[in-house]
Every structure is written in structure tokens, then in C-alpha cells.
Write a structure and sequence with these properties.
Oligomer: single chain
Subcellular location: Cytoplasm
CATH superfamily of the largest domain: HUPs
Pfam family, one: tRNA-synt_1f
Strand content: 5-15%
CATH class of the largest domain: Alpha Beta
Main location: cytoplasm
Structural class: mainly alpha
Family: Belongs to the class-I aminoacyl-tRNA synthetase family.
Helix content: 40-55%
Mean pLDDT: 93
GO cellular component, one term: cytoplasm
């Protein structure tokens, strides 16, 4: 770590550095050692595996990793990141986006880790969803430790903290009961025993029998049961569970969605009751679907991780997640092309930037300051326009066009472009081509297209994009259009079938003058 970089990081306004500086303030002399060994700064992310993981789930791990990386630039203290799955939670409703719903309905209320997998691939529903999340986190290259609530409850790692909950039972009730309605207060318990009869996580009042032994008593279908809360025989209400986890694990940093602000407040109070210190963190805004509704695992609205990666790169997804974390953003298919191109714009700018500017560049945080080599000679938007007019395009055909536009254009020379071509073909096929409707030119548009055709016919086949753009621009200025925008819109709508499009000089050079003249002829024939 260079002195220049550390000095810039200490002053950077980029949000990961602002968050990381909270941890420096938390431990100005370093985190106190345990058992003579350096105690790592502990970052945590949480995941409820009641439904398939979506981009919001990935987003929390990504953003937390960015803060962790930023902390490494500020301090040499060791760190850990735990991705915690609350798979002891009882299934409250059947998700909309899974098979075998009738089977799941038979297990409502049971811990997610004790419910059969509706997909039939894992030992439990939680195991299936956990595996889906871990697979993507692993593919992306995150450094993390996966933690299962079921495992931690069962193997005793929470025992001391669970006993502390019983010892401070009334104080925890004093925190929670004022936040609840009358009906909820009547049955609320910080501890949720697992029924020995039905296996359901019960929402019933409990009596603390022996806090030091971990014993409680409760009513289970008319029978009074005395049972330990250790060994996976109970779990905690999630706000209490969250606080207990912070204390048991020594969590120093955890962010949460804006919808959990009140929950963070209550859990922080309970954490202090248990003798702990709440972690640092911030509340990010939520991702919204195309209708402006919050993305939900159970509904399956919004985009899945797999969907994004069918049409856009992992780096573009990380770019989208980095930008403006405290601003609500719509998350739908239409934003993928822009995210791809904006990522590359910032990546292209990075090498020439000063250190201070680099630390505010999203790609610095996406790649932790070590950017891959490689350039992108055409934009993703231009690729989309090309494949859309080509119809059923193959990667080989696209490379054929690129060879006329980019010197030495081969998949070997531009491997990342080769990957983007695959994304462009898929996106163009599924989302662009079905929407294209080319209209006939009207009024001055017809004469302008005829003039463009004549000008193109006079050019050599290898004419560059700038020469062609100058011709397009001049026709727009002198062709009788009220504004240049009207001319460009006419080109997009008559030649490409869309209301918006690329820089036409670049598109014509890429698609080829002869092919572009054919598009003009087809438009004039309508």
C-alpha cells in the first residue's frame, strides 16, 4: 500500500472509504486482541433463504466487500467477511417462483433447513437456496466465509449468547413490546421454541425456567413443555437473533436496506442489553422492479442474478450496484446495456486519472484497484444496433463486420469484446428485435435519405466513421429539419426501427456502406 494511496483514501469522498473510516474511528488503536492473537475486523452480510437469491442479495455482499477492500487501503488490520444465512427461520409463506408448492405448503412454519427441497436437488429448501447464492459468490470471486444459522445454533457457537438472552429476558421485552401492537404484544416472545411434536417454529409466550441451563417452558398444543433452547431446539425472533449474532460473533460492520432502519434501531438496543456494541454500517435504498415495487425473493419480481448475466457482464452488475447506494433505483432488463457501456466508459478513463480521481471511479472499487488489461473498440450499444439489423446473427458474422471497422479485430485480440458479442446477440434477440418497427420516411425525410444514399455511394468502402458522421451531420443541418434531433430520430425510426440509436457515422462504418445503402433503399421503398 503506497503512502500516496493511503493518504488519498483517508480523504476520499467515495462512499466505501467514508464507510471504512467509521471502523478506524471505532478502533483508533486497533481491535483488541483475543487470546493473544490479533482480532480481525468482522464484516457480516445476512441472507434469508426463504426464496431464490436475487440481485439485492448479491448486492449486499458486493457493497460490503467494497467497504472491506476500502478498509484494507486505510489499515493493515486483518478482516473477515461472514455471509450468514438465516436458515433456521420458519417458512412463513410459499414463494411464487418455485415448483412443488403443495409440498412446501405442508411444511409451513418449519425451519427452512428442515423442509424438503422443492427442486429435488438438495437435502433441504434452505440448502438449495444457499447453494445457489454460494455458487454465484464463488463464481464472482468473493472472499467470504459462509455461515449457516442452523449449524451455529446446533453446534453450540451461540450457546453463551442464548443464555444471555434468557438472563436479560425482561430487558429485551422492555425494548420490543413498546414497538408492537396490542395483539402482537400478547403472544410475543424473544425466543421461538421448535415444537417437539410438529417441528414448527412456534410463536408462543415462553417462561424462563433456568437461564444458566438454557431451559424454557411453553404451551405446545395444550401441553406444557419444558425444553432447552440450545442445540437447535429454538431460535430467536429475528431482531433479537440479529442482535445476539452481533454479540456472539463480534460483528463490527453490517449494512442493511432502508426498510430495516427501525429493525437496526431495535437490534442495536438489544445488542447493548446483551453487553455488546452494535456494528457500524449504513442503510442503502432498495432496488425496485419495472413497476416501482420493492424486489421480493418470494415474489420473484425484478431480475435474478442469472438473468443479468445472460445479457450483461458481472462487471456491469457490480457497476450498477456501486452507484448511488442511498438512492432507489429501478432494476429491470432495460438498464443492462447502459450499465455495460457506462462501466467501460469509467474503465477507459481510469488509467489517465490521478490517484484521487481513481479512488472515486467505480471501477477502482469493482476491481479493488487492479484493473484487467484490455480495451473495447466499440460500444455495447453499437453492438446491439448491429445485431438487431442483422437479424439472426452469429458471433462469427459479427466479427466479420468488426473486421472492416476495427484493425486486427479478432476474438484473440479482444477477448472481452468477444464475450460482449454473446451478450449483445442474446439481448438483441430477446428484447430489441421483437420491438423494432420501421416506418416509411415522411416529408423532408425522404429527400434527406436520398441525399445520404448518394453521398455514401460516392465514398470508398473503407471510409471512416468520422467522415460519414460529418456527411450525416451536414444533411441534418441543411436538409430542412427543424432540429438535428429530428433528423437523427428519422434515421433511427426508418432505418433501425427504434426511436433512439447509435452515432450514425459509427454504425454505417461498422455495418458497411453497401449494407447501409440497402437499409436506405428498403426505407424509401415503403
Amino acid at each position: 500500500m503506497t503512502d500516496e494511496l493511503r493518504a488519498a483514501a483517508l480523504d476520499s469522498k467515495a462512499w466505501p472509504y467514508e464507510e471504512a473510516r467509521k471502523l478506524l474511528k471505532r478502533y483508533p488503536d486497533g481491535k483488541p486482541a483475543k487470546n493473544g492473537q490479533a482480532a480481525p475486523i468482522l464484516f457480516e452480510t445476512g441472507y434469508g433463504p426463504s426464496g431464490l437469491p436475487h440481485i439485492g442479495t448479491f448486492n449486499e455482499v458486493l457493497r460490503t466487500t467494497m467497504v472491506r477492500n476500502a478498509f484494507h487501503a486505510l489499515s493493515d488490520q486483518p478482516t473477515r467477511l461472514i455471509a450468514f444465512s438465516d436458515d433456521m427461520d420458519g417458512l412463513r409463506k410459499v414463494p411464487d417462483n418455485v415448483p412443488n408448492k403443495a409440498m412446501l405448503a405442508e411444511h409451513l412454519g418449519k425451519p427452512l433447513s428442515r423442509i424438503p427441497d422443492p427442486f429435488g436437488t438438495h437435502e433441504s429448501f434452505a440448502a438449495h437456496n444457499n447453494a445457489r447464492l454460494r455458487a454465484f459468490l464463488d463464481d464472482y470471486g468473493f472472499e467470504y466465509e459462509f455461515a449457516s444459522s442452523t449449524e451455529y445454533y446446533a453446534d453450540g457457537r451461540f450457546d453463551d449468547a442464548l443464555k444471555a438472552v434468557l438472563r436479560h429476558y425482561q430487558a429485551i421485552l422492555d425494548v420490543m413490546l413498546p414497538t408492537l401492537g396490542a395483539d402482537r404484544r400478547a403472544t410475543y416472545s424473544p425466543v421461538l421454541p421448535v415444537s417437539p411434536k410438529s417441528g414448527i417454529v412456534l410463536q408462543v409466550p415462553v417462561e424462563v425456567v433456568d437461564a444458566d441451563a438454557g431451559l424454557i417452558a411453553f404451551d405446545d398444543d395444550g401441553e406444557r413443555i419444558t425444553q432447552t433452547i440450545l442445540g437447535g431446539h429454538a431460535k430467536l425472533q429475528w431482531k433479537v437473533d440479529w442482535a445476539m449474532r452481533w454479540v456472539a460473533l463480534g460483528v463490527d460492520y453490517e449494512m442493511a436496506g432502508k426498510d430495516l432502519i427501525d429493525s437496526v434501531t431495535q437490534s442495536s438496543k438489544i445488542c447493548r442489553v446483551l453487553g455488546g456494541r452494535p456494528p457500524e454500517g449504513f442503510n442503502y435504498e432498495m432496488f425496485l422492479d419495472e413497476k416501482g415495487e420493492k424486489i421480493s425473493k418470494s415474489k420473484g419480481n425484478g431480475l435474478s442474478i442469472e438473468q443479468w448475466l445472460t445479457y450483461g457482464s458481472p462487471e456491469s452488475l457490480a457497476f450498477f450496484a456501486y452507484r448511488e447506494p442511498k438512492k432507489a433505483k429501478s432494476l429491470h432488463m432495460g438498464i443492462i446495456p447502459r450499465a455495460v457501456d457506462e462501466y467501460w466508459q469509467f474503465r477507459t478513463n481510469y488509467p489517465a486519472q490521478a490517484v484521487k480521481e481513481r479512488l472515486g471511479n467505480p471501477v477502482h472499487h469493482i476491481h479493488d484497484g487492479t484493473l484487467p488489461e484490455g480495451t473495447l473498440p466499440v460500444t455495447f450499444g453499437l453492438l446491439l444496433n448491429l445485431v438487431s439489423v442483422m437479424g439472426e446473427a452469429t458471433a462469427e458474422q459479427v466479427w466479420g463486420y468488426l473486421a472492416n471497422y476495427v484493425p486486427d479485430a479478432t476474438p484473440e485480440a479482444y477477448p472481452e469484446l468477444d464475450t460482449l458479442i454473446g451478450y449483445a446477440i442474446a439481448y438483441g434477440r430477446d428484447f430489441v428485435a421483437p420491438t423494432l418497427v420501421k416506418r416509411a420516411p415522411e416529408g423532408v425525410e425522404r429527400a434527406a435519405l436520398e441525399r445520404l444514399d448518394a453521398e455514401l455511394a460516392a465514398l470508398p468502402p473503407e471510409a471512416d466513421a468520422e467522415t460519414i458522421q460529418n456527411i450525416v451531420y451536414e444533411i441534418g443541418k441543411t436538409g430542412g429539419f427543424e432540429t438535428l434531433r429530428d433528423w437523427f430520430k428519422a434515421l433511427y425510426e426508418t432505418l433501425l426501427g427504434s426511436s433512439q440509436g447509435p452515432r450514425m457515422g459509427s454504425f454505417i462504418a461498422l455495418y458497411g456502406i453497401a449494407n447501409s445503402r440497402r437499409l436506405i433503399a428498403e426505407a424509401l421503398a415503403r
